[in-house]
Amino acid sequence: GAGVSQSPRYKVTKRGQDVALRCDPISGHVSLYWYRQALGQGPEFLTYFNYEAQQDKSGLPNDRFSAERPEGSISTLTIQRTEQRDSAMYRCASSLRNNRGPNTEAFFGQGTRLTVV
Amino acid sequence: AQKITQTQPGMFVQEKEAVTLDCTYDTSDPSYGLFWYKQPSSGEMIFLIYQGSYDQQNATEGRYSLNFQKARKSANLVISASQLGDSAMYFCAMRLLMDTGRRALTFGSGTRLQVQP
Predict the structure, then answer these.
(1) pLDDT tens digits, A8-44
(2) Which DSSP string corresponds to A27-89?
(3) Cα–Cα distance between B92 and B63 in angstroms, integer?
(4) Phi, psi dihedral angles at B67 (to 5 degrees)
(5) Nearest to A110 among B43, B91, B104 (CB)
(6) Could you give the CA distance from residue B19 to residue B22 in angstroms, rounded to a whole number?
(7) Which residue of A has its CA nearest to B50?
(8) What burial class does residue A10 get, using C-beta atoms within 10 Å of its C-beta: 0-12 exposed, 13-18 middle, 19+ buried?
């Protein structure tokens, strides 16, 4: 596609439910990142992939959070047993190269606004 | 660990005036890239400008320039001839460029710029 696409744009879920957030990166982009952004704050790193390999998951807050990118394209971020503190904007970004070089800026999707009630 | 500090939560500027948004960073790694992103009220993240740690000259992109002072670890964004459409949240970010470094962006907390007519 023309840009990074995330779905759904908005998700309201009850506490304790599982949610799956989808990211479709720009075609051909090697690297894919997940970030979480609280209101009025900068994005906070969660995890990232090069192709299908999860390179760094150190930003995932706890084991209720997981992500996959099985075919090196679309990625899913799953939150199990959601809690109210999980409410935030979840952003996906992709970049063309695997970030060894400079100026490989990340292109961001519109995000998924998650609200846990 | 990398850290980005943006000390100005909010800034006002008159239309057609220039404005400087401050950003300081902290890393012990010699090879890194610095980025500025714009986030308008629509929520998208728009890449503006990039500066590499080994770049000899300050980066410029149209009305945007980056005042890079390596010894002071600062990477301030200068917007010349402000326009009403520049009103947005601005984020400074950094990424390490070495193979062993974290490839994802570390963001500051942002500065909200309001351009007044």
Answers:
(1) 999 999 999 999 999 999 998 989 999 999 988 999 9
(2) TT--EEEEEEE-TTS--EEEEEEETTEEEE-TT--STTEEEE-TTSS-EEEEE-S--GGG-EE
(3) 17
(4) -90, 95
(5) B43
(6) 10
(7) A103
(8) exposed
